[in-house]
Write a structure and sequence with these properties.
Length: 690
Amino acid sequence: MPTKSAVKNAVKRPLTAEDLYTLQLVEDPQISPSGSHVAFVKVTTDKLQNKYKRNIWLADLTGKAPRVRQFTSGDKLDHSPRWSPDGQTLAFVSARNDAPRAQIYLIGLSGGEARPITSMPNGAANPVWSPDGKRLAFLSRLNAEERANEDSGKEEPPPQTDLEAKHRKEIREDKEKKKADPRAITRFPFRTGTEFFDDRFSHIYVMDAPAEGETAKPRRLSDGDMNFNEIEWSPDGKSIYSIQSRDPDYDPWHQQDVVRFSSTGKRKSFVWVTKTDRDYFNIKASPDGKWLATLRHPRTGSYGQSVHLAILPAKGGPARDLTLKLDRQVEAIHWSSDSKSLYLQAGDHGNVEIYRVTISGGDPVKVIGERRMVTGFTVSESETVAFVASSPERPADVYVRRNRKEERLTDFNKKLLDEVHVAQAEDVSFTAHDGRPIQGWVLKPIGFKKGKKYPLAVNMHGGPHVMWGPAMPSMWLEWQLHAARGYAVFYCNPRGSDGYGSEFSSIITGDWGSDVMRDILTGVETVAALGFVDSKRMALTGGSYAGYMTAWIVSHDNRFACAWSQRGLYNVISMYGVSDIPWFTEREFDVTMPYDALDKCWGQSPLAYVRNIKTPLAIEHQENDYRCPVSEAEQLYTALKRLKREVVFYRYPREGHEMSRSGEPQHRVDRLNRMVGWFDRYCKKKRTVD
């Protein structure tokens, strides 16, 4: 008689691209101050409406077993839950009741109807409670005219009728349309994501936390044509810290220092707290008020240099790095309740883990590890840690660690995971041509049989300073789909990747292509030597920097049966003038401007070698991608068509650089099916390598 597990396994099916519609994700875990509850956001996909829904869920940890329930509901985008200091109220952001802009809402721990506390004309975001729970700070966007009207006390009276409200709305919409026809551009950069910047900037507001049935008027702390995107209260509630560039007109995303506002003062001005050769971000004040913790990164040189955790005296003084010995990219930080140590999130050798480091120095100690990727965490006063993590078998779940024990709180994908086969990621490490160890992984195809040979899908990560691992949440569905369609899947962290130290990550400065290609091809040969890969049936793919690498490799090597290049850059010179991050080219290729180093930058462009491309190539790009604009793909496609090469160009309207991770659901499914269909066309038949 077969066992129950054997019968259960026998009826499992291969995963499909359409399973994206049923995949449920979690994000933004927020533990209450006492550690009694965890609020988090659950993300689901609405296939019919072709959009995502976000609702807040609550885990009650006070009983013998955690109890998880939905806390907000409906066809809404509820996000950014934040606990009041007494743990009795959640502030969150939502667009509901047909409101044109998202506003901040409050809801009690016992539930009930959420009530809006802001009605900002351009919306409100990022609510942060004051330490005593009596006030909230938040962000809202305004232009110079709106700030001037606000400062002068000119407030439009509320409409008296629905017709008047409709008329005002039409006037506002017409005014906004005229601003963009034509656009008068003076900002730099002038666009990002999928949109052009308008004339509005993000500013800090403070308001009293209104009781039920009451209202409160927000007061703006900041001013000027500059963005403030962080809020951190001092423990005494007298100050608010943020980040600002010292050159907001020409370099707003760099030269970033910590600034301080008075939370009660009438002047809309700030004081600089730091002034060094580092860019600062993610400020956290210690509970005892003595220290500021922050992340910082060198202002010059490769972006592969490690981001370090530093502390500085709140009353002024030099900063001190705490993670030099760790030498990894620190991604998030939280103080311990006694102000003597900090928890931090960092990637290492394919995993993203949580460490603890004391302010007195010493090596960071790993608190939460294993073969997975942590994507967010918070810490309670009792130092219970709530976190979201993915594993090779599970795309995302909420966990808590308390009393040295760990519990998983969610299992939203149980039905799907019970239905489908899940391929396991196996370690495949190898040695590069210069002796460097390179870490990689391989997934065997579903239904793998020893002695049989399979096609191989080679996946590469972008960045270039990014780290992949066996639990990569953004790639879980894609890799599992390839394995379900009969492909072995290989990926690795070649030189230039994060997770192995600054030297390893920065070594590709000025030369993005040659040695990275050698690392990847050495990995491919290592996997082929395992005996189950048909080397004549291999596909290559990657996005962004890995789109660059896809074009680079097929212009220097003909071993792949086909390739699929995603949202790539192919001309380093033209990329500089059209991307929203031109300084990236300056620092990564060590040039003042590409126009001053044409030979160097052209030699680093895959387009320079386009005549060598013989591999059938699919070029995927998004029409509103302002990171690697679609003109990059147009150049590569045009050249290949003029050369009469086998090429197809897929353009996705309305989408930006993040389409594969957060674009319209139907586009994401379409992309997955087209990609694996392209692979099948060339890899599911015999082929002779040229």
